[in-house]
Amino acid sequence: MVDVRRVKLPGVGVLHTFVTDDGGKVGVIAHRSGHSDLITFSDDGDGADVTKVSLRLNEDEAHTLAELLGGTQITESLTALDQIPGLSIDWFTVDYDDYIAGQQLGNPTDRGLVGLTDVAVVRGDSASPAPAPDFKVFPGDTLVVAGSPDKVAKAFHFFRTGELPAKASVDSADDAPPGG
């Protein structure tokens, strides 16, 4: 586990730093104004060969960098979870003619999809993890859901048609999740 040090900078914000395995220091100054500074510097004090880098990021850029840096861990975690028997994590890309297009995502339980979790909605290059029920879904969005394989298939049928399938129709090839 990485040891992150937090220092309050009066009138500025908060500085978070940690030391890398190779002795470099990485820091983020979270300014009270909302922007952040990503900084890297050597731990060698004022040596002549010390390289220092500072990069100013606005809020959107800081969130994007955080998603990029955390995206690998999320993908690895989802891959590990997908190996658990009885758990299916799958993606549904919304088309223009799908029922869910233009609709709020809603709460799976309220829609009759008990035992299913909306993990995220991916839109373009960004993701909305654990989206709220009022999150509006658009064509091109990718919905990431988790649950038993039959619950995922039932959800995909609902996303396409707006109807909950009878148990027998869940097993049809048209309602199966992609790749499943």
Q: In total, how many beta strands?
A: 9
CATH architecture of the largest domain: 2-Layer Sandwich
Structural class: alpha+beta
Q: What is the global morphology?
A: elongated
Summarize the main sheet. 5 strands, antiparallel
Which SSEs are present, and which pair or pack?
Blueprint: E1 5-9, E2 13-19, E3 24-31, E4 36-42, E5 53-57, H1 59-81, E6 88-93, E7 116-123, E8 126-129, E9 142-147, H2 149-161, H3 167-170
Antiparallel strand pairs: 1-2, 2-3, 3-4, 4-5, 6-9, 7-8, 7-9
Overall description:
With 180 residues, this protein is α+β, with helices and mostly antiparallel strands. It folds into two domains: 5-72; 84-175, Alpha-Beta Plaits (2-Layer Sandwich). It contains three helices and nine strands; from the N terminus they run E-E-E-E-E-H-E-E-E-E-H-H. The protein has helices at residues 59-81, 149-161, 167-170; strands spanning 5-9, 13-19, 24-31, 36-42, 53-57, 88-93, 116-123, 126-129, 142-147. The strands form two sheets. It has a five-stranded antiparallel sheet. Strand 1 (5-9) and strand 2 form a beta hairpin. The longest helix has 23 residues, at 59-81. The chain is elongated, with a radius of gyration of 22 Å. Mean pLDDT is 76; it is low at 168-180.
